[in-house]
Amino acid sequence: MRKSGALILLALLLASLAAGVPAAWAQKGRRLHYSTLFNPNTVTTVAGEVVRVERVLAGNGADYCVLTHLKTPQGLLTVVLAPQGYMEKKGLTLARGDRLTVTGSVVTILGKPHLLATEVRGDRNMHLRDPNGRPAWAVGDDWHARSNLRK
User: Fold this and answer.
1) How far is CA 119 from the centre of its chain?
2) Burial status of residue 128 (CB atoms within 10 A of its CB: 0-12, 13-18, 19 or more)
3) How far is residue 59's CA from residue 66's CA, in Å, rounded to a whole number?
4) pTM of whole model > 0.90?
5) What distance in Å separates the CA atoms of residue 84 and residue 75, rounded to the nearest whole number?
6) What is the rounded (10 degree) CA torsion for 146, 117, 105, 60?
7) Predicted local distance difference test score (pLDDT) of residue 45
8) Does 25 have pLDDT greater than 50?
9) Closest by alpha carbon to 49, among 96, 93, 92?
10) Which end of the chain is flanked by fewer CB atoms within 10 Å, N or C?
11) Cα dihedral 135, 136, 140, 146 in deg (nearest 10)
12) Can you name the residues that pair with 72 across neighbouring β-strands?
């Protein structure tokens, strides 16, 4: 009786742990990164005014990703720009009130439309991705690696 109780407890414990495992398994192997969502068939150009610039922790946790919220005639749109380190290295900055024209791929992230920017035109032009979505900061085949992280 004691043995079967311990086995049941062990089975319940393993079942509860396994509930969180599928998400981890899905991330094994090649990492999913927002740049892999880029679709050349959804490339469009929008114009608007920057209402907010923010940085969010990137999926690999190595840097922050710079986003801007652009007020367009169609409504508010989140534009995914580049890693903060890349933006700083290239001297690329945006501020509230800047008027921009942005070209990029419309994708859905967490159920909301985002634009993965390939080019930003304003006071200063920014080339961020090629027409296939490959980021300007990409190293080799790993699109989200930065050269200073590789040894």
Assistant:
1) 16
2) buried
3) 13
4) no
5) 25
6) 30
7) 97
8) no
9) 96
10) C
11) -90
12) 75
CA distance 9 to 11: 5
Structural tokens at position 125: 């032009």
Question: Bigger pLDDT: 22 or 118?
Answer: 118
Exposed, middle or buried by CB within 10 Å (0-12, 13-18, 19+), for 122? middle
Buried b or exposed e, range 40-70, using 16+ CB within 10 angstroms: eeebeebebebeebeeeebeeeebebbbbbb
Among 91, 99, 59, residue whose Cα is nearest residue 80: 59
Report helix, strand and coil shares of the chain as percent, to nearest 5.
25, 40, 35
Which amino acid is located at 129 in the chain?
R
Residues 6+ apart with CB under 8 A from 123: 98
Query: What pLDDT, on the 0 to 100 scale, is given for residue 20?
Result: 36
Residue matched to tokens 């994708």: 107
- The DSSP result for 22-91, as a single string, is HHHHHTSSSPP-GGGG--GGGEEEEEEEEEEEEEEE-TTSSSEEEEEEEEETTEEEEEEEEEHHHHHHHT
pLDDT tier, 63 (very low <50, low <70, confident <90, very high otherwise): confident
